[in-house]
Amino acid sequence: MRKHRHAIAASLAIILVRMASSQAGNINRQEFSQIERGRYLTVISDCASCHTVPGGNQPFAGGRAIETPFGNITAPNITPDPETGLGTWDDDMFDAALRRGIRPDGSYLYPAMPYNAYTKMSREDTLAIRAYLNTVTSVRNATVGNTLPFPFNIRAAMGAWNGLYFSEGEYQSDPEKSGEWNRGAFLVQGPGHCGACHTEKTILGGDKAGRYLQGAYLQGWSAPDITNDHRVGLGRWSQEDLVAYLKSGHNRFAAATGPMAEVIALSTSFMATPDLDAIAVYLKSLPGKAGGPSSLPADDPAMLAGAAIYRDQCSACHGLDGAGTPELFPTIANSPTATSDNPRTSIRIVLRGARSVSTASAPTAPGMPSYGRLLDDTEVAAVLTYIRNAWGNASTSVTADDVTKVRKETALRPD
Amino acid sequence: MAKRLPKKDVVIIGLGWTGSIMANELTDDGLEVIAIERGPWRDAPTDFPPTYMQDELRYRVRHELFLRPDQLTFTFRNTMRQTALPIRSWGAFMPPNGVGGGGVHWNGEMWRFLPSDFVLKSHLTQRYGASFLPEGTTIQDWGITYDELEPFYDKFEYLCGTSGTAGNLQGQIIEGGNPFEGPRSRPYPTPAQAQPFSHTLFGKAAGELGYKPFPQPSGNLSQAYTNPLGLKMGPCTYCGFCEWFGCSNYSKASPQTTILPYLVRKPNFTASDNSEVVKINLDKAGSMATGVTFVDSSGQDWEQPAELVILSAFSLFNVQLLLHSKIGRAYDPISNTGTVGRNYTHQTTSSVNGFFDHAKYNFNPFIASGSIGMCIDEFNGDNFDHGPYGFIGGGYMGQVQTGARPIESTLVPPGTPKWGAAWKTAVRDNYLSTVKPGAGVHGSFYAYRDIYLDLDPTYSDRFGRPLMRITIDLKENEIKQNKFLTDKFAEIIKAMGAENIEAQYRTAPYDMTAYQTTHLNGGAVMGSDPTTSVVNRYLQSWDVQNLFVLGASAFPQNAGYNPTLTVGALAFWAAAAIRTKYLKRPGSLIDA
User: Fold this and answer.
1) Can you point out the beta strands (E) in A120-232?
2) DSSP letter at B67?
3) Is A270 a domain residue?
4) Are A187 and A322 contained in the same domain?
């Protein structure tokens, strides 16, 4: 009998929630085209990455801690729950948050929420996202939004930040360029918010001028240069290579790991192929940096030591020629990750190992084991110096101090 | 008191090769499947990393990947007159444990059985007469033919990317392959592995003696491969650490490399590891399974109800769980009644070491894979006339160099002192110039009335259940067969140019302390007669219609080949029967 009462109470609660959420905004919940458009925009905006706890079964209910250089920010609940989610927001409130970084009470959002990218979307776009989010299961989950230490916990400071780094406004097509290029530019600059990771930041966390998509460092990883730079960027990848990578997490050269693995798993693997093509066309049009180091001579002592370590420890999978096995073991020869100006991703992978991403079209998710116990910092530096300068690769040397620093930084990381 | 979990469509006991195959097939039909695995979850790159996997002491000598006998063991005796004692350290075989099961630590040898193996009793009786069969043998037909199983052999070979050279393509004999094999519908998915020096020398010597040598079919791949599930495998690096070890190079076919990454993405699949199934539960009438009871590492009992129960543990554990769950009638060799535990078999293996002049020969024996090799099949099954020899059965033989790991690869010619400077010198002199076949002679092991499994009257496990008792010995037929085969093998090793030969025959009594193989078969055999088999030709229990028992426990007797390919093919065969027949009309798949 008691069980029976519970069931009645639960079904009443569901009805109440449905009624409450159906009042939110001016959106008709059977507006299929708008909802479907919003679902797709939610995927390409990768909202789930922050607003869903990984491995959790409560989509968009918030609660994930987002790591920033200033401290952690907890992503809020964006389900239609009226008390702890967005159920009571009207359309203007939602649009202002997404495209201007303004909360319903008029205070500022932190730019961990990439409103500086989402501002490129139209009001129609944001209301479509809103329409979709109105259809997801309502979850009651209160989150503590602001966990930053002083002085970053003062939201008013974001007004000044916006003055420095935020330029509001929808994406404006470049009539000189193709429709495909413009679509790509919109996706990369807008919903895709690629610059959030791939553009270097100032000490205040704003985009550094002139460094657009040329690589950055965050969360213990160096996000690579994704311009068409021939040495450290996408210059040696074809458009097809890039599309395959975004679709499956793998291509004939590389395997995605770290934060990009998550972006692929949650977002780009679900994008329509024409959109991936557009992204590739746009990124391949961005010029790389001029100059760069030349290869170290093969008889450099670090190169000799590194070559010996490589032969013993690495060549079984990656091959003596650094070519790897397509779509299984990444190529090191010609690898922009290997030759990246900032070697921290390579150091981290050698020290801690890495797991690539499993996607529907490439489910294997091969991994690389950790060598942090087997190799000391000098040995890691030597083998990385070697791979950065063998087979025609050219990059700076890695020092034992570089390795020591990354070993320390990543020692207690859970990822 | 067991806590009851929500009901599933299917519960799978044991997530090794057969459990993984069945889980993948049945989730494809939309069924909710849970796999319950006694051991830990295991993943190729993190559990078998090349940074420490090549550790002979840890994995080979100390049995890292295997079940700890403290958790569960068996008792053993040679004959019914003896009192069995518990096995406290594994010797003759290595019971697998953990996700991937035996598929993690195997060598990767991927043989099909001969067409005549499946109709063994009728074939031999027809050719030689019933009086030719050894006394006390209980060999029987499988209830399935090679032709019926062929599409499923093919399916498993393509799942694994098997490297080999076809010998019989749709009835056409192909030069360079095994001319004795049954017809295959298509070539191997990848070409045979490249053969090291000692293997090519064996092939040359065997050819000159009039045999037809061919490369052993291998689950260690000659080249990169993408399987039908979209999973990628890498080329073998010939590191020589296959058997006893996991492969992190994605080169050895295992559930980890060929199924699991695909399976775990499915929302209708879940698994519970470190969970030991202790009983298959039955309804009041005892004719339908209601699910299983398992114990987790905290000692908590859980009941997992399900519509369909798949028993896919290692062969011995299948039989043990049937006995503990009182499913079917336990075999009694005295009254010759009952079926569960009947027709237990192993493999009759032996080898011949060849010592060559070290000034002339350098075999680089460390260049190896678990299933690389050159073999001949002239003396397998009934490929030759047994009339003059007075025994039945046979096996393949070959130079299958599985590695030269330092602890176990210190072979010295007979007569060398066992320690001291002379021994050290002999080890050094012979390390590179000794042929030490990993597989050697791989003979059949046929079934007998007094070789069987039952519950031990004295010893019990941590739950108070009787341990399972193994009663096994080598019979005159197998000893004769092995002598004949080993002598033939020694002739080839001699013809290769060996100066010194050391033949190691398999003899009685059966030795539980030294490793033979982990090819343990029977005890829950398949067949067409419920009085002599536990499961029907679809591996469905005769007694409990919603229970299927997979694995080598279904072999009525063992052929002269490694069992895994047949084990996998039978799992696909049973899965097809469930998908196309059982799910449409649950009940017995055999019209009584």
Assistant:
1) 216-218, 221-223
2) P
3) yes
4) no
Cβ neighbors of B75 (< 8 A, separation 6 or more) are: B84, B85, B86, B87, B456, B458, B459, B467, B468, B469, B470
- The band of A7, judged by pLDDT with boundaries at 50, 70 and 90, is very low
Domain of residue A278: give its range: 179-284
Asked if B313 contacts B14 with a C-beta cutoff of 8 angstroms, the reply is: yes
Contacts with A313 from chain B: Cβ below 8 Å: 50-51
Largest separation between any pair of C-alpha atoms in chain B: 74
Contact call for residues B262 and B24 (beta carbons, < 8 A)? yes
Considering chain A, what is the average pLDDT of its residues?
A: 90
Query: Cα separation of A273 and A361, whole Å?
Result: 13
B270 touches chain A (CB under 8 A): no
Element (H, E) at B151: helix B146-160
Neighbours of A39 (CB within 10 A): 17
Report, as an integer, the average pLDDT of B58-76.
96
CA distance B428 to B409: 11
Alpha-helical runs (H) found in B53-141: 56, 102-105, 120-128
Q: Which residue of A has its CA nearest to B223?
A: A325
Domain count, chain A: 3
pLDDT, tens digit (0-9, with 9 covering 90-100), for A330-359: 999 989 989 999 999 999 999 999 999 999
Number of CB pairs, chain A paired with chain B, less than 8 A apart: 66
Question: pTM (2 decimals)?
Answer: 0.91
> In this complex, is the C-beta atom of A374 within 8 Å of any C-beta atom belonging to chain B?
yes
B3-582 sits in which CATH class?
alpha beta
At residue A25, the pLDDT reads 55
Q: What is the pLDDT of residue A2?
A: 43
User: What is the structure's pLDDT at B592?
Assistant: 53
In a domain, A11, yes or no: yes
Q: Both ends of chain A: CA-CA distance in Å?
A: 47
Going by pLDDT thresholds of 50, 70 and 90, the confidence category of residue A415 is confident
Q: What are the C-alpha distances in Å from B393 to residues B132, B383, B478, B557?
A: 12, 9, 8, 11
B63 as an active site residue: the answer is no
Count other C-beta atoms under 10 Å from residue B591's C-beta. Answer: 5
At B98-112, the pLDDT tens digits run: 999 999 999 999 999
Work out the average pLDDT over B36-65: 94
CA-nearest of B384, B565, B554, B566 to B481 is: B384
Q: What CA–CA distances, in Å, run from B289 to A24, B21, B325, B588?
A: 51, 21, 10, 13
Domain ranges of chain B: 3-582
Task: List chain A residues with CB under 8 Å of B239.
Answer: 316
CATH code, A331:
1.10.760.10
- Determine the Cα–Cα distance for residues B542 and B523; give it in Å rounded to an integer: 14
Any B CB within 8 A of A326 CB:
yes
- Whichever domain contains A198, its CATH number is 1.10.760
pLDDT higher than threshold 70 for residue A23: no
